[in-house]
Design goal:
15 helices, eight-stranded mixed beta sheet, elongated, six-stranded mixed beta barrel, alpha+beta
Length: 697
């Protein structure tokens, strides 16, 4: 049977215990804080003592003794009195009479008496710490080496801006002016990507051409194997204008509009984004009924652009306007009749709304007049960038009719050449009205393709014409070919994998090109990057940065260091067991000595601090020794690997790196391990009876 009285008694006792702990919790907190302060002050006193030992050693070294003696004189005259005041404050926190500085000195002498055992124990502790230091420094060193190869400090402060999903494949000059006025943006570096038709000794090929200002090379840290960039040219500046146009249909300032009102007075010809199931809502709101999904098919759809509800809080393209009457944020939507695809693959046409971010505008269809209630549309359309025909296959005879620019991971610009069959050759040639610079920088990959020796680049020249598309120059009908211009090679960039050419941006803008393919923003500080990227994305553009790649690298190596630290702490745990064994054996050997000290007047708390001091000295010395051993082994590893690397032409490789944070962590951790290891022997020494200790054999 269950004894109810016993249960009631246990319950009452438990309640009393909990009540007692609750009532006295502030007292326990104060005691815990006081104990922590005592140990921290002990740590400082131990550091002062170890530093004094190092100074005593340095005094006897001929090369540094004079400087050390001068420092000692300065210390005694100027700083020692402040140290004494500070030390007295630390000592006032404890009730015992014997000063801890003296206890540390006695503990050091006790360890010195058993020198062999102490050295072996400290060496074991040092080996455990050295394993941690070496493994973690290896992780830090390789991470630093990889990051240095990926990006420079300047690149970490760069933001690459490219066309967004709803833009026409270009960045307008007005948008660049907005970006240049953003806070924390030091410099704006535009870039224009075009397809170039290269003519070298009557051999023709198509290649990628980047038109850039001269400061682009410094900002992107390009490595030249021969020559340099076109430094003799003047700096390129973007002309200012008061006219502020909307970029990709989105303003950087939340404007005041009305819900369910048209954005423009003309119809739009549009197509859903490729490989995206676009949701269609009954009304222009994500809270309305979902009619179904539509996808991209052959041909375009027609509809009107309206202000609807925001897509989602703080989402790109989500907030472009504000309706004061309804007190809601507005987003841009397209109203049109669209095909809905059911699960049984039947198609039904429904009139609904799709978010503007899921479609690509291909044409603007101005409404000229209405006849019997139906709009008559002009045959003339304002075409945007050409849609890529994904079914076209590349053939040797294909013309590069269009180009698409994107940013790869880390911010490097990439241009995709889209070959189309059946593209008529340009009949009209866009002539230059003034002479171009005639300077070009090419990649080493293109140099090999042309079979030009790097030592003979000054003797060679080539001719090139550019294909200018409408997204870069809105005044041209579709695309147009420029006349050939002659260029000389001024520099070669180290890039064997890709073939491309850099020319001064003035050589393209002089033709009347007003838009850009990509923009680099140089910031004043990396910490402002997140804020700037959000502001630029509000304009409807995509952003990328080398910092994204660096963040992924740091995350990977952070996880790797965690695994390495776990392995190292296993070795440290084994070493701490050896130190625990040494302290326990020392306690048994010195039992009669403890009894004698207590008989002479030392209190139990001072005995406990004496044994803790010995444990702290061994732990602290093991930490310092481990740092030195880990540093030496890391340097040896770097030298061995660098011998092989230098023989292969790579250069010296620093494989290990010990940051100050790791040094501080190791010193404090070794001290804490010493304290934890010495707690049990010190506790036993404290509670040994003086009479029993004197009788101990």
């Amino acid at each position: 049977m269950i004894n109810k009285e016993k249960i009631i008694t246990i319950t009452k006792k438990t309640g009393y215990i909990l009540k007692d702990v609750t009532l006295h919790f502030p007292r326990y907190s104060v005691k815990a804080a006081h104990t922590l302060v005592i140990f921290m002050s002990f740590f400082l006193i131990l550091q002062f003592f170890m530093f004094s030992l190092v100074v005593e050693v340095l005094k006897h070294i001929p090369l540094v003794s004079k400087g050390v003696n001068r420092a000692i004189v300065f210390w005694n005259r100027s700083l020692k009195r402040y140290y004494d005041i500070f030390y007295e404050k630390l000592e006032s926190l404890r009730p015992f009479k014997i000063r801890r500085k003296y206890l540390v000195y006695v503990a050091f002498q006790n360890l010195n008496i058993r020198k062999s055992r102490s050295i072996i124990t400290i060496m074991g502790m040092s080996i455990g710490v050295a394993i941690i230091v070496y493994l973690l420094s290896l992780g830090y060193g390789i991470e630093k080496l990889v990051i240095s190869q990926v990006a420079s400090l300047e690149e970490l402060q760069m933001v690459d801006v490219s066309a967004g999903e709803s833009s026409t494949g270009s960045i307008t000059k007005q948008a660049v002016q907005k970006m240049s006025k953003l806070a924390h943006v030091k410099e704006v570096i535009p870039l224009i990507s075009v397809v170039g038709r290269l003519n070298y000794k009557n051999a023709k090929t198509d290649t990628v051409v980047y038109a850039v200002p001269k400061n682009y090379f410094k900002a992107s840290a390009k490595q030249f194997i021969k020559g340099s960039y076109f430094s003799q040219l003047p700096d390129y500046t973007i002309s200012s204008t008061r006219e502020i146009a909307e970029v990709a249909g989105i303003s950087d300032v939340i404007s005041r509009k009305t819900y369910d009102k048209p954005v423009t007075s003309y119809k739009l010809s549009f197509a859903p984004l490729p490989q995206v199931q676009v949701p269609v809502f009954k009304e222009c709101s994500i809270k309305s009924e979902l009619l179904g999904f539509t996808i991209r098919t052959e041909g375009d759809y027609q509809g009107m652009e309206f202000y609807g509800r925001e897509y989602a809080p703080f989402e790109t393209f989500g907030r472009v306007a504000y309706d004061e009457e309804r007190n809601i944020f507005l987003g841009q939507w397209i109203k049109a009749e669209l095909p809905m695809y059911e699960e049984d693959k039947n198609i039904s046409w429904k009139f609904g709304c799709v978010p503007r971010k899921y479609v690509q505008i291909t044409q603007e269809l101005p409404i000229i007049a209405e006849v019997l209630g139906e709009a008559t549309e002009s045959a003339t359309t304002a075409s945007s960038s050409a849609t890529v025909d994904e079914e076209n296959e590349s053939t040797p005879s294909a013309e590069f009719a269009d180009a698409k620019v994107a940013s790869a991971e880390g911010g490097m610009e990439i241009i995709y050449l889209n070959p189309q069959k059946n593209v008529a050759k340009e009949e009209k040639i866009l002539e230059y009205k003034q002479k171009v610079s005639g300077n070009a920088v090419i990649s080493s990959g293109l140099l090999k393709l042309l079979s030009i020796s790097p030592d003979k680049i000054k003797e060679e020249s080539f001719k090139i014409s550019y294909i200018i598309i409408k997204s870069l120059m809105p005044t041209v009908p579709g695309r147009i070919l420029t006349s050939e211009q002659e260029y000389k090679i001024t520099g070669v960039i180290d890039d064997d994998e890709n073939q491309y050419i850099y020319v001064p941006i003035q050589d393209i803008t002089v033709l009347g090109v007003s838009n850009y393919s990509q923009v680099k923003l140089q910031l004043d500080d990396q910490k402002n990057m997140s804020e700037i990227r959000k502001q630029v994305e509000t304009l409807g553009y995509k952003t990328a940065s080398t910092a994204d790649t660096i963040a992924e690298i740091e995350t990977f190596f952070g996880s790797l260091r965690t695994v390495l630290a776990f392995i190292g702490f296993i070795a440290l745990g084994v070493a701490s067991l050896g130190m625990f064994n040494t302290l326990t054996v020392s306690l048994l050997e010195r039992t009669r000595e403890i009894g004698g000290m207590k008989t002479m007047g030392m209190v139990s708390g001072e005995i406990q601090e004496l044994f803790l001091a010995e444990a702290m000295i061994m732990g602290f010395a093991g930490g310092i020794g481990g740092l030195l051993f880990g540093f030496i082994v890391g340097k040896l590893s770097s030298y061995i690997v660098s011998i092989i690397a230098i023989s292969q032409g790579v250069g010296y490789l620093e494989l290990t790196y010990i940051p100050w944070s790791l040094t501080t962590f190791i010193v404090v951790s070794s001290f804490v391990v010493g304290v934890i290891t010495g707690l049990y022997p010190a506790y036993r020494a404290k509670h040994i009876s003086a009479l029993n200790a004197l009788r101990y054999e």
